[in-house]
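Q: What would this chain look like folded?
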Amino acid sequence: MKKLILFCLLSFSLLFPTFAQEKMPKVMREFRAMWITTVGNYDFPSAPGLTAEQQKAEIVNMMNLAQDLKLNAVIFHVRTAGDAFYQSETEPSSYFLTGQMGKKLEFDPLKFAIDEAHSRGILIHAWFNPYRASHAAIKGDIPENHISKARPDLVRTYNKSQILDPGEKDVRDYVTKVVMDVVNRYDIDGVHFDDYFYPYKDANQTEFPDDETYKKYKESGGKLGRDDWRRKSVDDFIQNLSVEIKKSKPTVMFGISPFGIWKPDEINIIGTSSFDSQFADSRKWLHEGWVDYLSPQLYWSSTKNGQKFPYLLNWWRGENKKKRHVWAGVATYKVGDAAHPDFTPEELVLQINTTRGQLGDGAGAIHYRAKFLLENKGNIREFLKEKVYRGNAVIPPSPWIDSTLPSPPELTASKQANGDVSASWKNVGAKQAFRWVLYWDDGKGWKPTVLPPNMTKANLPANMNVQKVSIAAVDRLGNISEATVKEVK
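A: My prediction, written as structure tokens:
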């Protein structure tokens, strides 16, 4: 055990520069996450209707994966199509979870995932699809409390799918209620939306069937053209939900992962315009500060003509007027796929290093998605661990949410008869530590390592020549306390 602790500490210390003894070194800052997709049983569970123990084992396996890769967050899909991956009195349990929509849950997957993540010092963001009301893979009867049965007047059929009409105020209010139910009842760290707002247009560029909704708007005195009215409907939803989240739990982050191209003709890029196709004005959400982070899906390589990863990331960075977070969504799913020969493990490493170069201490990337990290095509996990994720990182701070530092922990440290240094610490103050930063000084400067919340003691072997030990607490928003220092005697 001592050898393991020593190896980990030395490995982590290689990542960080050292400063003069009087000053603690900087700790690496980076948001590192993966999406855990539940729709279609893409990531979890591997099939509908597994037993509770099988499902728990799969969650544990994915949290172990995140911990092994030194990720510090997961984006967990909790609502795919008007359904729930948690205990809900509003919406039925998901078909993808139970094999029968509305079937009573044997356990609460979201609660279990939160506990497993938090015990490892990993944040968990609950991911919702706000408007989708059906999916082609769902089989069997739809229960009466599903939104398509309870309020069929709010549902539109488009491209063989059922979509809640974003132009209906009752839709916006209903989805806000669903999201806030989770915010209020679960210990989540963030609320997350992906790129699905108005649906992507079908092959025939058919218009979304909202004639009657738009007619009601015009008859009530509305002046906007249909496209601007659609965008305003989504904007109103995003703005109001942002306010509601912060009103209820100020420290819960709100993040969105839009399509990676906002509007091609505005940014000299070719491809789909989410501004015109989905009526998602994601740039505005960033400009207005309605989101705490934006993770544009930059699923192109650094050499893709018309859609180069570095160019797009730099454009989004330049649009971050309110200094929120911009964390890239990266296409881990393309690694090892013959259809994407330009997406090698080296390309993914290059992209992560590009985020660090452009974003500095605010860097971050989210991997799409967990299954592809588990499958490990092209040995991508080894590349990530050896090239970019060699030590743990603390997420970038969010001072517009909370900049209050945790209290310095209480620390004891002493030298044992064999020369080892034994250290233990505990939380002090109202803020609960979510992670710890342990520093040690061997006479050549301080060196830090980031530890999980359940690790409250360490044995530092004699050959490390430890002369001083220090500990700092980290809260869930990445605020690091002043360090408590003890000279070893």
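The radius of gyration is 24 Å.
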